[in-house]
Amino acid sequence: MSTDRAVRSGGLAEVIRSSLPRSEERPTRPPRRRVAAAGVLLALVVAAAALLWAKWLPYQAKIAVLGGTHAWSGGSILAVGDVRPGSAPTWHAATSFFAVYLQSVRKALVAALLISAALQAFVPRAWLLRLLDRRGALRSAAVGGLAGTPSMMCTCCSAPVAATLRRDGVGTAAALGFWLGNPLLNPAVLVFLALVAPWQWTATRIVVGVLVVVGGSALVARLTARREIPVEQVTGSVEPVDWFAQAPERFARTLLRLGLTLVPEYLVVVLAVGAFRGWLFPLSGGVLSAGVLVVLLAAVVGTLLVISTAGEIPILQGLALAGLSLGGIGALLLTLPAASLPGMAMVGRAFGWRTTWLTAATVAVGGLLAAGLLTALPG
User: Fold this and answer.
1) What is the reported pTM?
2) Please, what is the Cα angle at 83 between 82 and 84, to 5 degrees?
């Protein structure tokens, strides 16, 4: 069977086997498995240490505080620098938002870059594919979403990891599930919501979040289905004998590449969002507070804006007090944490721009569903 035919008809394992001479297949498999397992263990150690520092310990402390007060401290990041809905873009609006946002995500961004580099340097591609790519888009999206929940990142910080997964050959459904599952199914944020917001908010976020992460990711993957994995990418999963010895160099090289390519464009887009946020987010408790137009507007602008993890909570609490309708609250509850222009800028080349924008549209539709559900739930 030819390699091209093997890719089309079945499976990664068959492709790898067909690319190796028969005489080399058996003797090399056991040592490769042991070396690969050592690499996976090292990647897990890097990920656990980074997340413990950036996410798990800070969130544990936050939950302890909220458990006692049941009140969120701090205000909306969209209002920093005295920017109001409708305010014209200024350099002060850009820099004030940039400073506050970067302060809140700096640890998570460092953790994301370290995890991305560790995945690419220490984990063989074949192992990633075996873990995340399952039979059927729905199963792959579910596994990807589940894999993303422990990292608890916002959409921008999970974007480098999702882009790395896609470049390593992980299917669109699983990689999208990971990217969207991080912010939408973040267990810490769900606990935050349960402690400081009405139960309907938490229920809406869970139900529609699962629908978007699993169903939405699978739908986008089917609509943008690419042809089979390139042969050179799959056969590259068979690492050389000295693969583990070269891992530190790969780690440093990958970390440098991510820092020089993804981070600058990400920061530029964050500055732009900060500058134009008065126009991008015209919702307030005034005239724009209820109606179908408000829900549609909330679904669109929430998809484009960028916030840090749990940043939607003070925004929504303020808008609810100002009189924004339940439909508008529901749309923002789903769309504010997911996608975002900076996140899309980071994953666009890895996923393809058609996939990226279709994902944004799926998130916006999810916002409309969340608006309907939150409105329908008993008060």
Assistant:
1) 0.86
2) 115
